[in-house]
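Reminder: ligand-aware prediction takes two inputs, not one.
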Amino acid sequence: MDLLPNAPPAPGRVVEVARGVSWLRMPLPFALDHVNLWLLRDGGDVTLVDCGYGDAATRAIWARHFDTTLASAKVVRVVATHCHPDHLGNAEWLASHFGVPVAMTYAEFMAAHALIAGAAGLGPADIGGLFARHGMSGEHLAALAARGNQYHRGVPEAPHAFERIVGGDDLALGGRTWRVVTGYGHSPEHAALACADAALLVSGDMLLPRISTNVAVWPGEPDADPVSRFLDSLTRFEALPADTLVLPSHGVPFRGIAERVAALREHHRMRLDELSAALVAAAAPQSAEDVIPVLFRRTLDLQQRFFAMGEAIAHLNHLWQSGRAQRLVAADGAIRFAA
Ligand SMILES: [Zn+2]
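Here is what comes back for the chain with zinc ion:
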């Protein structure tokens, strides 16, 4: 077994993680300060997998890659694992620069356009409305409202057209066959890419080495149980060969899918147990806002509070959907949970 590539590439540089597979890293304007992108090479042909946050800092680094990494390459396709800004932010910009299509799943394509338009219950006002029902304070709601459409800031333009990929598809990319493995709970129809022959998995955000993937409820689907969707999706990765090298969107490449999936299952089991215990101990029904300190024992900035709220609602919905908690809806729409 070869050595694990665990020293991230500097901005504008690449690290070869397997024959024909290069690792790029781009900055992010958040506490989570980086995202990993991948290049799949077949001779001079290159497929870009994920695109980075759609801001000037990332585009400046891309411009360096155009002149160096990609100087003698022919970019043939852009693949986006999902619609989040650190993955899709520059997809349209890259696709039009190279005159190539963007391959992604149908739900991620539609969600990107809905998020930009604030349609389908995915606008900032919808998010504020959901969080208000779950007890977010007026101060935090005002701070969220003031920042406007954060998604559109990170994805200035969604792809105008796309090549649809579907779970189970075999894609010929970079001289290898990659199977699309769809996953749920983090985004509408996340596409990971598994190459059985080379024992590689581009896991996107579905399988990360250290942090747990954000699993959140969104206002268009307020009763959703994304925790179950996410945990069910992990079984698809457990079926991959044990020596598979996982190429995650955050952190560094790793092996040991089964151990990581087991740790994530345990993580969510413990969080749910702690949340359930907190509901039992509480003197009154609890809002998602009330239980954020049970799930997150640290100070949260606005972006982290946004993720924490969606995550708290997701875990409460899971307890409710699995019969471990009651959901109480007041006449004014306020949602609380009780044991
Ligand atoms: Zn994501």
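The chain has a mean pLDDT of 96. Residues 15-258 form a domain with the Metallo-beta-lactamase; Chain A fold (CATH 3.60.15.10). We will return to this case in the review session.
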